[in-house]
Amino acid sequence: MKRRNFLINALIGGAAMTSTKEVLASVKDSAAYAVKKPVVRIGICTDLHHDLIKDGEKRIQAFIDEMNILKPDFIIQIGDFCVPKEKNRPLMDIWNQFKGPKYHVIGNHDTDGGFTHDQVVDFWGAKGKYYSFDTNGYHFVVLNGNERPEGDTSKGYPRSITKQQVQWMKKDIESTSLPVIVFCHQGIDNDMDGIKEGALLRLVFENINKKASFKKIRLVLSGHNHEDYLNTYNNIPYLQINSMAYQFSHPEKGYAFAHTEDPLWAVLTINPNGTMDLKGTKSTYVSFDMNSNSPEYNGYPTVPWISDRHITL
């Protein structure tokens, strides 16, 4: 109160024409501004698949050029970026043109050809196979969904988060008082080729929120499925970001690729009141009929865009 009265008296003394009521209103507004949560803006892309397409460098250059204009707090790619081969150095040089923090999530195709997670981390200059960081009052957790549990002899790409990583994640999230955003290449919400332990992880997130007595886990983002959707389970939103390069179509037999004319990416803005806005990009297909999926296909639609979304608490 002494400090407040001193400030008021000083302001009155320096501006005789200013009323006490106006000064009090100014002090109140300044105090309210000081306790507002800071805004975070994030540039997001995923599933470039540079080693499978012909124009990966062009697509990343367009993304980086736009991000250097928008100047988000950081950019992140959510996996299936490129394998750690020397021929991919030019792609990394373009990525590193961004004038700000840059983060990576490991995807299942980033180890194609027998590379290890450690080799991918070193080549990208990533913080680790899984890790966390803080930005402007928010805590961000990057998971590695490409682990194979001991004794697992199943065929195909591993899509697990094993006990050691789960224990690390719980300890990491419980040790912060900040709201949390989670990134993982494979969907934690999607049983169709998503994380095998998805149901367990969703329960872990829900229990963390209950223990914290507030919505600590605010959003979980993924790529991998090359689709565009938002699911909500027990008040936690799970957001799928569409591929930069192509989607999978679903004909009656087999599958086909539907390449987009332009690269897709999104910008996520976390507002002062905690709500979030996703601004996506839109394109068209080079040669694909969006209505050509098999009538028996019951999954998410094949679309050449990332939808704009408003996510509330």
Mind sketching the topology for me?
Layout: H1 2-14, H2 20-34, E1 40-45, H3 56-70, E2 74-77, H4 89-95, E3 102-104, H5 117-124, E4 131-135, E5 138-142, H6 163-174, E6 180-183, H7 198-212, E7 217-222, E8 229-233, E9 236-240, E10 246-249, E11 256-259, E12 266-270, E13 276-280, E14 309-311
Parallel strand pairs: 1-2, 2-3, 5-6, 6-7, 7-9
Antiparallel strand pairs: 1-12, 4-5, 8-9, 10-11, 12-13, 13-14
Provide structural commentary.
The protein is an alpha/beta fold. It is 27% helix and 20% strand. The chain is built from 7 helices and 14 strands. It has helices at residues 2-14, 20-34, 56-70, 89-95, 117-124, 163-174, 198-212; strands at 40-45, 74-77, 102-104, 131-135, 138-142, 180-183, 217-222, 229-233, 236-240, 246-249, 256-259, 266-270, 276-280, 309-311. The chain has a 6-stranded mixed β-sheet, with no helix packed on it. The chain has a 6-stranded mixed β-sheet with strand order 4-5-6-7-9-8, covered by helices on one side. A hairpin with a 2-residue loop joins strand 8 (229-233) and strand 9. Helix 3 runs parallel beside helix 4 (89-95) and helix 6 (163-174) runs parallel beside helix 7 (198-212). The longest helix is centred in the N-terminal third of the chain and has 15 residues, at 20-34. The protein is globular. The model is unreliable at 1-35 (pLDDT under 50).
